[in-house]
Amino acid sequence: MSVLPRFLVPLAIFLSLLPSVMAQGSNCQSHEFWYDKTACCVPKHVPQSPSRPPPGKSCPTSDTETWYWSDNKSCCLPNAPPPPSKPTPTCQNGHSWNVNEGCCSAPPPSGPQSCSNDQFWYQPKNTCLPKGGPPNRPQPPVGRQCPQVGWYWDVGSKCCLPYHRNQPPPQCPSGWEWNSSSHHNHCQLIPTPPSPQPLKPSYYRHMQRRQKLRVDTLCPNEMTACPIYGIHGPSDYECIDPMHELQSCGGCSSTGTGQDCTAIRGAWNVGCEAGHCAVYNCMRGYKLARNGSACIPL
Ligand SMILES: *[C@@H]1O[C@H](CO)[C@@H](O)[C@H](O)[C@H]1NC(C)=O
Ligand SMILES: *[C@@H]1O[C@H](CO)[C@@H](O)[C@H](O)[C@H]1NC(C)=O
Ligand SMILES: *[C@@H]1O[C@H](CO)[C@@H](O)[C@H](O)[C@H]1NC(C)=O
Questions:
Q1: Which domain of life does the UniProt lineage start with (predicted)?
Q2: What mean pLDDT do residues 51-74 have?
Q3: Which letter does DSSP use for residue 82 in this model?
């Protein structure tokens, strides 16, 4: 495109801007509408048997639209776009509309006596929590984790919560540290130190002569030496952190003790979390497996 007739220029500019203008709403299909609160397309029909909201939460009542609880989004969804004036949804049973959580919720509990039998009082957050945790366990977002023993990710409060009243102290996976500042309890990545020096060839020859030397003493703490195979067998080693190495997650992918998360069929965004591949989302034509570690062709 070298010369564009003058009168076509404004049109070309207009067309180039169009996709960004239309991105939000027009990506929705005809049976869906764009819902600002969840920033996604929401179906216009109410599912046949929507789940009950968790204890202490309920969905608004309205003459103009029907609200239902969505497990997927952990909030209430309407079956039609709320009116442009966006009045505060009406709640019942003494509940009030909770903007942050996108649902109606009971007034904040004031102490242990506000918890029901299947709940316990969690002082750090001044709230009642379900004993044993909630039925569904959403994955924390990228960059967050919960200690693998005793804690789960809570979408509503965006932090890790304990299953029981007397929880052992939180233990984050290696490479992660506990952050409890302003009660935003979660594990976060420890800023990475400079990456280890690649092994020098002389070191490698030395190792070959002393075959007894254990391969895993070649690398600094927490790192594993993975053989890199050439035509004549192992020709070099690399140090990897099997807890977080995307292409050798859980161990060396070259020896089959670990997995190459980038090789998961249909996966789009993947991570290696505590030595297990975590698929965050799948390519078009696939859906995320329930266990979060595979993509299933649709
Ligand atoms: C929840 O999300 C999955 C995948 O995005 C979808 O297939 C499923 O229909 C959704 N469930 C409900 C009840 O909306
Ligand atoms: C802890 O997490 C909070 C919330 O994400 C963040 O603002 C804060 O900087 C973190 N604290 C540390 C010490 O990294
Ligand atoms: C996860 O689910 C997929 C499909 O259901 C299955 O093939 C795979 O073995 C599962 N992985 C784990 C670690 O459970």
A1: Eukaryota
A2: 88
A3: P
Q: How many CA atoms lie within 13 A of 290 on its CB side?
A: 1
Whether this prediction's pTM lies above 0.70 is answered by: no
Give 275 Cα–ligand 2 centroid separation in angstroms: 24
Average pLDDT over residues 246-274: 87
At 155-182, the pLDDT tens digits run 888 899 998 887 777 888 888 889 988 7
DSSP E strand stretches across 143-275 = 144-145, 151-154, 159-162, 176-179, 186-189, 224-230, 233-240, 267-273
Ordered DSSP codes for 116-153: -TTEEEEGGGTEEEETT--S--PPPPTTEE--TTTEEE
Nearest bound ligand to the CA of residue 275: 3
Residue written as token pair 């789940």: 51
Looking only at the bridges linking them, the beta strands covering 127-130 and 119-122 are: antiparallel
Report the DSSP beta bridge partners of residue 61. Answer: 90
Nearest ligand by distance to the CA of 250? 3
